[in-house]
Write a structure and sequence with these properties.
By secondary structure, the chain is α/β, with parallel strands linked by helices. Among the domains are: 230-340, Succinate dehydrogenase/fumarate reductase flavoprotein, catalytic domain (Flavocytochrome C3, Chain A, domain 1, Alpha-Beta Complex); 418-521, Fumarate reductase/succinate dehydrogenase flavoprotein-like, C-terminal domain (Methane Monooxygenase Hydroxylase, Chain G, domain 1), CATH 1.20.58.100. It is built from 14 helices and 18 strands. It has helices at 14-23, 59-69, 76-84, 86-96, 132-146, 212-219, 249-253, 279-293, 307-313, 315-323, 379-395, 418-435, 442-465, 470-491; strands spanning 4-10, 29-32, 49-50, 114-115, 125-126, 150-153, 156-163, 169-176, 181-191, 224-225, 230-237, 257-259, 298-301, 333-342, 345-347, 359-361, 366-367, 516-517. The strands form 4 sheets. Strands 1, 2, 6, 7, 8, 9 and 16 form a 7-stranded mixed β-sheet that branches. Helix 2 (59-69) packs across helix 3 (76-84) and helix 6 (212-219) crosses helix 14. Keywords: FAD, Flavoprotein, Oxidoreductase, Pyridine nucleotide biosynthesis.
Amino acid sequence: MNGNHDVLIIGGGVAGLTLALHCADARRVILVRPASDDRGASRWAQGGIAAVLSPQDDFDAHVTDTLVAGDGLCDEHAVRFTVERGPAAIEWLLSLGVPFTRDASPGADYPYHLTREGGHGARRVIHVEDATGRAVLDTLKAHAEAHPSIIVRDDLTAIGLVGDAAGHCRGARCLDASGTLITLMAQDTVLATGGASGLYRHTTSPRPASGEGMSMAAELGAELVNLEFQQFHPTCLYDPEGPPFLISEAVRGEGGRLINVAGERFMPTVDARAELAPRDIVARAIDAEMQRSGESHVWLDVRHLGEAAIRHHFPTIHAHCMTRGLDIVRQPIPVVPAAHYSCGGVATGLDGSTQVPHLHAIGEVACTGLHGANRMASNSLLECLVFARSCAARLAHPEPTSSASLIAAPAGNATIAAERIHAWRQRMRELMSRHVAIVRHDVGLENADQELADLAAEIALAVKRSAPDPALASLWHAVRLARLTVVSARERRESRGLHYNPDCPPHAETPPRPSRRRLGDLETG
């Protein structure tokens, strides 16, 4: 054991850091934040944060746009809850010193530049040039590290939660760099571990989460919702030899055009909103164009915007592409869809609470009802901020903890070779990318179900025999979540939002219903 902490937060992206700062004035916080969090989804959020800030905008418009993008599956109450709390969250970030890009244009009705992204009917995305996530994360991290009531542990990796006989969460089991098991007990535990895009081969983040937090919560009995709705960002830089790099939706918001190998725009014939259609529509259109042409990517063209506008709006993207030998002022950008954001996750209330007492979840790991079947651009960081602040308000009034006996986590003492773990992970990613990606088919989902079950059986045996290992624990959580995702996809007999199956009719269910999963839905593991 290692102490008995007040609030334990697992994950140090925007959601985790925001919660820590809001909790720390009332309760002592320990934040488990591995160094890899600096390369997670928050840092790579380029576009910005959607909020009603301009006098020309209003809450109803933002709510409506979000509901349309969510393709009928959003919880309207959760959407309005989030949207109406957006301006206050932005004001809080400004008070911390986040250097949002100012609007110096004559007649500007808001001091900071607002861009427009896919699905939005107005300019409402506040940003820090084209590196918003990095700027927000760095600001929050600096404040958290300076706060006397926040202990940041960047030397630990959480591998599971601690439960007791009463079904309550009592903390987490972690490993340090030497492999020593450390149990952090806590009165309240909060998951801010990110999504599950790491289940796929191509992602928009160098170190994507693979649903570890979702699986950990499910181990204690939490319900997982809407796992089949995995968003693929339409425009990731296509470079098989280099690391993933997202090309922000703001590039299309400022006028970027998608073209095929013949130099022709194809989005206007697909949707009246063209390049600014919701992400599920744009990603499917790109995928269809690639299938039609046999090419491995399409192009995103910004040359017509001119060098001054490109350098002004997209300095990070321009500079990064130059390091990869691509001058976007003179050349179109090769792009391909890549796994980006999980719209499903741990079912929570509007305060981050789960069905497991003393366990909360915020950010991408959670499913609040905001995103429905497809997340609208730049609503993600908004959700992180709003629900972290809401969860902090709940945690300001702690409830009595259980005194039931803890449930032990058995483990062996064998060692599994890193190469074998890596091979298993690649096999999982290949299966998910082949059968459970932008377009799914019944036969492919059936094959994925069986092959993932076989893979899980191999990994389960290794888990029972081996000593605690962070890579193996991550893989075990990931493969079980992959299996639950396939179960959810097979069960949804309609095409809706991010779940597109040509073997199912569009919007067959009226009214739509969320898909609900528990670990008990799996036959093994």
